[in-house]
Write a structure and sequence with these properties.
It is a single chain. By secondary structure, the protein is mostly helical. The chain is built from 7 helices and 2 strands, in the order H-H-H-E-E-H-H-H-H. The chain has a two-stranded antiparallel ribbon. Helix 2 crosses helix 3. It is elongated and about 65 Å long.
């Protein structure tokens, strides 16, 4: 008995290679981003027609999808390049991949903490503003005060 394909029916019926617009659509990105990823060498050696049009293989689209999913998780371009290299290296140690992901989690936690501090600072400022017809405004006063603490360092409690 034949194993069913894991690819969606629409993708199984595609005549490869495809144009940049089709490749971008399949990967869930814009054609502009596909060109950008190629310019960063994240997608090297895309074939071209004699007239210079890009022709994307199924493997190219898979790589573009990998990049999009990595970007959706907030990985930097450098981290994505490292992950792509590990993905293509069938002799890799999974510990290398895990290390990149763990470092990224730490970075995300730091960014979340900084954003929470900004939120607390803004909440304090909004709470102190009367929000009426008077011109005095503690929010603007704080923003214009060069001695005021930065949002990320303010209100860490």
């Amino acid at each position: 008995m034949a194993r069913p394909s894991r690819k969606p029916a629409a993708e199984r019926s595609i005549a490869w290679p495809v144009s940049i617009s089709k490749a971008a659509q399949l990967a869930g990105i814009s054609a502009r981003m596909a060109r950008h990823y190629e310019s960063l060498n994240l997608l090297p050696h895309v074939n071209r027609t004699d007239s210079g049009y890009r022709l994307y293989t199924e493997s190219d689209v898979h790589t573009l999808s990998f990049i999009r999913r990595s970007r959706d998780l907030g990985f930097s371009m450098e981290e994505i390049e490292n992950l792509l290299n590990l993905w293509h290296d069938k002799q890799r140690a999974s510990s290398s991949v895990k290390e990149i992901a763990q470092k990224h989690i730490e970075t995300l936690r730091e960014r979340i903490a900084a954003m929470k501090a900004m939120e607390r600072s803004l909440q304090t400022l909004v709470h102190s503003c009367h929000g009426d017809q008077r011109p005095d405004c503690p929010i603007l006063d704080s923003l214009s005060d060069p001695a005021a603490p930065d949002a990320a360092s303010c209100c860490k409690h």
